[in-house]
Request: fold
Amino acid sequence: MIKYILLGFLNYQPMTGYDLKQTLDHSVSHFWHAYHSQIYTTLRQMEAEGLVVSEFVYAESQPDRRVYSLTDAGRAEFNAWLEQSLTEMSPIKEELAVRLFFSARRDPKSVLAELYLQRELHQKKLNEYRIMTKDAIEKNAILAPQLAQDAVFWRLTLNMGIGYEEMYLDWLNKTILQIER
Amino acid sequence: MIKYILLGFLNYQPMTGYDLKQTLDHSVSHFWHAYHSQIYTTLRQMEAEGLVVSEFVYAESQPDRRVYSLTDAGRAEFNAWLEQSLTEMSPIKEELAVRLFFSARRDPKSVLAELYLQRELHQKKLNEYRIMTKDAIEKNAILAPQLAQDAVFWRLTLNMGIGYEEMYLDWLNKTILQIER
DNA sequence: TTCGCCATGTAATACGTTACATGATTGG
DNA sequence: CCAATCATGTAACGTATTACATGGCGAA
Reply:
């Protein structure tokens, strides 16, 4: 999966592993996450497969950068992936729900403390989505008007991130109320 | 993670790998998923670690069953896991959102077809959650009244599954409308 | 001078998925 | 007779996570 995300971003412009990590964290992080180690190793593999090529860029008083670009094979692989529709639902893995499922015998105070912390984290995420990422999309839309159509789709996925966090907070609030009794 | 789910279920009663897979599929499947292969191999590992013990049960005209039970060490490990609160958010991995993010250049008809299918799948899931799993919880609550307190927590996690699917469908409908233009 | 950011990677491990493999019983 | 369900597992592969490892620059 991470392979296609990297191909997708390189489709916009050549980038380094570091750039890709930054881009990922500021765009699709609401629904996909990767560590830099995975990105660097995947890029190496992709180069071995001929999907990307890299060139090392030396700059004085600046760290060296390995810039990756798509090859025709990479572009083809990316398009082939986009063309074959998903036919299944993505499985969810929610550790908090697992813990709550088994929490009947725990001290309610400890359960509540855990839920309060999660509420804070999700509230923070929601605020981020509402401001930061929206800004990033708008800025990109102005800087790169040829990506206006892309920005429409980015906004759609951002809506999902916002919807998800709103739903989560709503559920947390109801759950907290019920446990507080 | 799957280790703690297995410990959690075995805390209720001794079970086989098959039983655990069935139980998992009919209870925490809204927020955790595992293949039978992973369950069987994890049980073996857990036995090696001394968290569970198994005994082979032979029955005529019935397949043999390997029944696992918790040891004191297993119970202790499970309680220790429950006691240390989660301090981070579970990362989301939503392939559909990734695909949509990069879908600006795709044929809108193909994108819509993909979204229609997802809508069907999620609608089906929501119906399942509303009927089947609720029934399972009620039935269990009647059969095992000592688990009444547990059932409260099971219902809370079911609410999350329902909330999630409702949010997802809502988002899908809005997204479809916008792409249909 | 210390912290954070830029920038790169490797190694080891852990976890998850797909495919392979078998065989009995029950119900339509 | 065929499909589904019960019941168990292994092997190979693929993906993800944690930890290890390095070093320069700029700002407070």
Observations:
- Residues 16-18, 36-37, 40-41, 44, 62-66 of chain A lie near DNA strand C (CB under 10 Å from a C1').
- DSSP finds seven helices and three strands in chain A.
